Task: structure prediction
Amino acid sequence: MLEAYVKKILSSDVYDVAIETPLETASFLSARLDANILFKREDLQPIHSFKIRGAYNRIVKLSLQERERGVLAASSGNHAQGVALAASQLGIHATIVMGLNTPAIKVDAVQRLGAEVVLRGDTYDDAAQHALKLAHEDGATLVPPYDDPAVIAGQGTVGVEILNQHEGDPDAIFVPVGGGGLIAGIAAYVKYLKPRVKIIGVEASGSDCLNQALIAGRRVRLRTEGMDLFADGASVAQVGNRPFQIARHHVDQVIVVTTDEICAAIRDIFDDTRAIAEPAGALAVAGLKRYVEETRGSRRSYVAVVSGSNVNFDRLRHISERAEFGERREALLGVSIPEKPGSFGRLCQALGKRAITEFNYRLNDQRTAQVFLGVQVHDLEERKHVVDVLHKRGYVVDDMTDNEMAKLHIRHMVGGPASSAVGEVLYRFEFPERPGALRTFLSEFGVDWNISLFHYRNHGAAWGRVLVGFTAEDQDRRALRKYLDRIGYRYWEESTNSAYRMFLV
Result:
């Protein structure tokens, strides 16, 4: 199987539109990790993504009759741009179906390349189903983003370049995974020529379709309502069949990373290149960092594919905010202090010379005050040390660094108790972020439930996050949960969350 793919890869027509991207040493990250770290800069492609390779290689092979009928594609954005550019270069009409949550920068880019854009659904799979329907109706050729031999072969040219550019053999190549086309192409070529080089896939937590498939021994479909769409370019519910057949035999490992780790990796890429990767584009770097930390693979040579840089500007606020958590460089603490003169100063003295990143205060009663505190630290050990120091000084401390409700909501709304909110229960919700989504969310509650607290913040992420308090007597709470189950939003009850208890009750 590998030999056949290698022949297709070596005969791929990609360089009519794609460029051979550089393999650059990441000096800062290399020094930090005590290893030779190199970035394969696919963000430098004409569409700022590797996807142009596979798209062009597939479309250029169409017959004259197929070209006249046009092409169709479903994509979260980067494959869309690849198809649009390839079709434009070849004089072919292209229709692209994109999810409603697709960043505007990607939609605009596709339209500028001359393609017709149709927005449909919340996930790639929703868009793919609609594209399939249109292909049946119009007779256009559907260009798959990953589950196609020509697409896989086009993406495999990345592996050719890495081996040609790297002096000697790298110890491992880290590859972002969505549907699996890129890792399948790289694995097919690299494992055929250099079987000792490790191929390691990296997926986002909540979108780990390849990881789940390898665990199960078969392709599985993730529940779309539970998928994390932050790394939207790699948010796929089911890995492609052909990529899975290659990956199950030739991918050595899959690492699953968090949103915070992805944000930290985006900053690492920026520090070394001054380029801003999109979340999916930074997956490989996030996985590489985790791998080095866990294996202590010092002085080894690792390649990470920086796969794209099509990121909405307004998402940078969220990325910057969460990057410190991804690096474990910020601790969020809830601290109770005596309500008397000099308490703030003594708390600051206890923290020493550490930088305070956030300081929110709320009077609790005449004896105590609650402080929501952000402190700059270097790592997890220092964070634990800070908590221990405060405990020894007699402070009551709650470490909220890993408390999602605290990070997403409480830090922006430190307040106090509402005396009239009798029987309050607290829920945290998520919904795909798109125009009108908040209005739709609010309309679901009608007039049946009294809302005592509400916090929403649009921070540029793919998901809208809302914190809602309801006043409901004990006999009504079961009915409330049944109602929430019925309307279908992802939710978590947060009534016992320590951040809520400390700052809002």
